[in-house]
Amino acid sequence: MAGEVSTDLERELGEMLEQERFEPPAEFRERALWSDPAVYDEAAADPEAWWLRQANELLDWEEAPSEGLDDSNPPFYRWFADGKINASANCLDRHVAAGIGDRVAYHWRGEEGEERDVTYAELLADTQRFANALKGLGVGKGDVVGIYLPMIPEVVVAMLACARIGAMHNVVFGGFSAEAVRERMEFSEAKALVTVDGARRKGKTAPIKQQVDEHLGVLGTLKTIVVVRHAGTDCPMQEGRDRFYDELLEAADPECLPEPMGAEDPLFILYTSGSTAKPKGILHTTGGYLTGVAATHRYVFDLKPESDVYWCAADVGWVTGHSYIVYGPLLNGATSVMWEGAPDYPSHGIWWELVDRYGVTILYTAPTAIRTFIKWGADIPAESDLSSLRLLGSVGEPINPKAWLWYHKVIGAERCPIVDTWWQTETGAIMITPLPGITATKPGSATTPFPGVAAEVVGEGDGEPVEQGQGLLILTRPWPSMLRTLYKEEERFVETYFSRFGKETYLVGDAARRDEDGYLWVIGRIDDVVNVSGHRLSTAEVESAIVAHEKVAEAAVIGQSDEQTGQAICAFVTLRGDTEHSEELVEGIRAVVAERIGKFARPKRTVWADELPKTRSGKIMRRLLRDIAEGRALGDVTTLRDPSVMEELEAKIGAYEDED
Question: 161 lies in which domain range?
């Protein structure tokens, strides 16, 4: 079982908070791939040589690179430029050739209980056939292929087939609207789009192909739409343009040799959400990206491919899915779990049933999911056997200490190290993280940069390093998996990331704090800051204090215009279980914030929210909360998991009086 869950869990978590540091368990350290801290010094002594060694040790090259970094034209850095490699061959062919073709690559589970085990040999066979099908449709090296699919094995086949022939894939998250698909296909001038007849979500089926047709219109470059039959729904097919995936596979030749790609040849484009501006097309190239994800996946998760069952509970439509569902795990020959559904369907315990069913040893998920599980209660995971777990990971946003500790105790039974990772779509791979066999962790801190990565906290005004305290997070040295540019927007690339502190310094866009031990605490986006009477507070900092209250499951904080203080804090709070809201509870929350941060940080307004507005990836849309708090018309809500949440909050917010 997950471990006997104490009825006095809150008291125990409070005591653990005071421990502050968690050393790697001795048994874990003894068996870890990396247990000697000297790896940091080794990488720092000659980062280029260190990364070149990782590239040659972890990947199979058609022509091995002899050079690491080319920094002759910053910020347009190049890595391993004289090497040739194919991503698809590294993910599949070499494993089959090594005799492990019958190893399961993915345990796929559909939301209605369907199961498929896809081996490396089967994945290779389908990838070769679909690569030939794409070539038959006129897709070649340098072309762009859009992919708009749910979490099914065909999404991996489509990505690797593109990589096999040198086409760039442009994956669009399945939770985005068909209008967002059209926008991204137009921006990238995609030649083909791979989509699905229908997508299932919590017992309902959405007619995806029909919606795509309604919004796509006429795009001059888009010649073909390939449709995967998944949900069994009828869909319109336009003669001469639309083809069924299964029919293409059946007709295609079974063998497709991988195209030799230069290390700096493009691998994929991934567009950011565009919530505040035109979406940015993040461009990643082949050799450096593969090196970064192979190294971080192997060593951050201490992967033993012969025995581990790894589950990254993200979506392939985000960079986490690209790097740690597809490329990282397949490069390392891992067996992964792929789950099509939501965390609460068909029951609140489905995730833990999957851990039990497949013997998951490594779980990588987001703080927003963990906070949701806290709200549902510790008794739900206790119903499943979680004893197979040996390592836990966190990704997507800073994790507050309370959620970290709940994850550690309830899910990890206090035996599993937690790797709290920080990185971005732009970085391609994990940048700041504990190493589970080396690093003593602190709840809420991503700790220190991965070997070969250099990060600093600097003053917002002067850019000088901050030895201890808060400032802007920057990366001060190029790394192999970094974005190379913004697709067809080189000036915007320089302006966005390399204009503030020069072309040798990457501006992350996050605020961070360095503590007395040199550990990094990522606070949140620079623009997620509230200024109360001259006190600059990160929303994440206040939210973390609010959720420290024993009755609070989740909180989102925004700054609201205030005549007295410039801005005042408005908190949207979700309570645990059947807790009833009251004036006493409001004061209790304010008291916790005052104790942890100061009286000036107390919320002036508290709004009880049964649910917070979140995207399908789980990110809270604070922009929309600011809109309703200020009485403005709502911005775009098409990316929300449940748009009705905003209607409920709009109706509710007028009933709340300002708190003194």
Answer: 120-259
